[in-house]
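Case study B.
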Amino acid sequence: MNSIRARLVLALILVVALVSALAATITYRRVLNETSVLFDYQLRQMALSLRSQVSLAPRIEVPPDQGDTDFVIQIWDLFGARMYLSRPGLPMINQTVLGYANLSVEGQAWRAYGLQTADGVIQIAQPIRVRQRLARAAALRIVIPLSLLQPVLVIFVAWIVDRGLKPLQRLTAEVQRRDARSMTPLSQDGLPREIAPLVAELNRLLERLRDAFAVQRNFIADAAHELRSPLTALRLQMQLLDRAPDEAARNEARARLGDAVARAVHLVEQLLALARSEPRETPVAFVPVDLATVSAQAVADTHAFAIERNIDLGLEAADAVPLRGDPEALRILVRNLVDNAVRYTPPGGAVQVRCTPAAGGALLEVDDTGPGLAPDERERVFDRFFRRAAVQESGTGLGLAIVKAITERHGANIMLGSAPGGGLKVTVSFPPAS
Amino acid sequence: MRVLLAEDDAMIARGLVTALKQSGFAVDWMSDGQSAQAALATTTFDLVLLDLGLPLCDGLTVLRGLRRQGDATPVIILTARDETPSRIAGLDAGADDYIVKPFDLDEVLARMRSVLRRAAGRGDPCIVHGALRLDPVSRTVERNGAPVVLSAHEYAVLEALLQRPGTVLSRAQLEDRLYGWDEPIGSNAVEVYIHGLRRKLGSDCIRTVRGVGYLVPKL
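Model:
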């Protein structure tokens, strides 16, 4: 039963039934009590009035009862012999009890009053059924109107509930009409207090979704834009290869074409790495990793590039730097940091990678002897496709965005500072494995 | 023809420089907006190839600055920004043409010729002057219908003089059109090319204004 209206109607029926039952019970009890007091009084009055008559005429022939009353009168003489029974044929127990008494005769309950007189005993008795009948009638007078009112109440409540739920139906219609990509907030005008918080939360969710979609859309637009440059270079070099006038020009064009292809491949790899380092619905399980081994691999990967640029690249690592994480992502992280350092350090400079266990976690530092970073650039370098002004090196602008995403996924903290040699110092601190 | 290339992507710039030189242009490459502004302030170019996303100073700013100074040098925008509002902004800022990356090299060269032709006030792609007919597409010259073989530099000098007949061009102006900044210039190279042209086309085709420079007489 998952309808508010049905639940309310059912609850109302139950409540009305319960109230009716309760009212009937109480009425029945009270009426029974009141009639008892009255009838008891009447029993006694009848006995008293009979006593005066009996004593005046001890052997009076009281005519038998005509049967139009439910009282039964019995009179006994001093010796216990019954002198009178108002309704012969009724099986009355021949017993005298003085004062009020409840008697049971052949399964029927009677109320009786016995009075001692000078000549004997007078007893008036009445079936209790009479009193119960009266009480029952009184109770029914309460229950019947309530029961008749029930359907009216049900219809009325159903109507009220329908009216109360109108804003919800309006809201449903508004949501149904919506375009799948429409992220505009739902109207909150005239909503009852009970529904407004739900709509407000929905609107907040829509807003977050809208932001997330915008980020995604911008990223795709940026990525497409960034792909144009390597593709332009590729096309250009291909056409130059076609029109090269001599063998030397052809060789040069071929070499440059190779560079352009390598650049396009690198950009695509970086885009993939970034996509993989974004949080996913099913996160990659973290496994124990030795950061020292990962760093050694990353330094080895970048070694050839460092030699080509005449950079002194070195690694200084503890024997083992245990960590929990995604080994492939960590390798990309270290490689990107080292690659960046080598790329932006002028030839003849040095890049030092340090890897140490620290406070239960691990510390990775990459120092270079390059120009460093201005403080206002230190936040922006983590933006996708950000490239520093007036730097000739053709990076993809994605390296540090990837690094940032991977550190966030590992709960690590990344800081940019100044290296002792005047260059840039990148510090990544990994938290203790918990 | 001297061309300024303002492009921050080294790989694209190097390719374009090679291609333009092969097509007989003298090219100067600037990799940021401020250097491009400095180059434009000190040197006369026949054409500017301008990237919009330049470091230090945006390409549109460079273009607006140029036009504000009353400089009508033809400008072709070469950019990765392909959205219509961006194209409109570029053309309205004073660009003569707008080419989106990745471009086709032949198309870039054709558009450069087209912009140069219009800048010279001509509709006919060929420059005709008396008996001379110069075809900028094939870079060939005919005299009375017969082809004349010219060296690349001779052709460049003749083209420069034929752009505006009757206007005197100094030796320095001609050198500017022949060489980029990074190319060595022979001390009497222009005299050599003028001499060659006179020998092949007739001595009266180019006149010397002593102490000033050279001109092709108006007809």
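Chain B touches chain A at residues 9-12, 14-16, 18-19, 22, 31-32, 55-56, 80-81, 101-106 (CB under 8 Å). The remaining cases will be described in the next quarterly update.
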